[in-house]
Amino acid sequence: MLLTIIIYRRLLLLFLFLLSLGLVIYTNSTLPISNNSPQVQVINSTPARTLYKHFEYREAKANTLIEAGFYIRDGYSRPELLAKEAKESWHKMVIAAKDEGVNLIPISGFRSIKDQKVLWVNQVKRRGSEKEAAKRSAPPGFSEHHTGYAIDIADIDTPSSDLNSSFDQTPSYQWLSKNARQFGWENSFPVNNKQGISYEPWHWRYVGTSEGKRIFKSGREKYPV
Question: Does 57 fall in a domain?
Fold first, then answer.
């Protein structure tokens, strides 16, 4: 009995030693996705995980978000939120575009995991499978919108292009493609992107600060745009 206890203690000490060296990695892959989803992958032993090539993101805390503008269509108005530094850059970009006769408005900024789950379930129903749905929408917990550092953009004068590939024919997209990077914004899913996500000319992420670069580091390194 004494020998068994001694062996057990030695094994426990060995496990703790290996854990401290990072040689034993424990991950919790419990996600709000169906039981048929593929195994979540750990990328290069970093905290970032992927599902259907979408990267996992933490949900921003409510007290870090501020109003960035309103989505306005046909008398409907909805406030959109961003992280403080993303909002400040977005505001500067909106003003610069307006000075050149281009009117940018936000469609969607921050989005909670709870709201993303509703969108995801509906997308799966429409597309018939999670794999097909993931080409057009991120699973809950894996959307850039969770961070407060991503935004869907619309042209105020062409509502028909909202969340549509035809957005790339609008003055807003043409202006963004030439000027957004100088404000720290980049298109997350350009045409023929290596990530395999459907083309989304309206979806942009903020990487103009060290925090923005940190948040999207894994995705940008694996799938540069």
Answer: yes
Six-digit token string for 208 = 């103009």
CATH number at residue 190: 3.30.1380.10
For the record, the structure tokens of 225 come out as 């745009």
- Domain range for residue 94? 30-112+143-222
pLDDT in tens, 50-61: 999 999 999 999
Cα 118–81–220 angle (5° rounding)? Answer: 80
Quick: pLDDT tens for 143-174.
999 999 999 999 999 999 999 999 999 999 99
DSSP bridge partners of 219:
none
In a domain, 118, yes or no: no
Number of residues assigned to the chain: 225
For CA atoms 186, 165, 190, 57, the dihedral sign is: positive
Looking at the structure of the chain, the number of domains it has is 1
Confidence of residue 48 (pLDDT cuts 50, 70, 90): confident
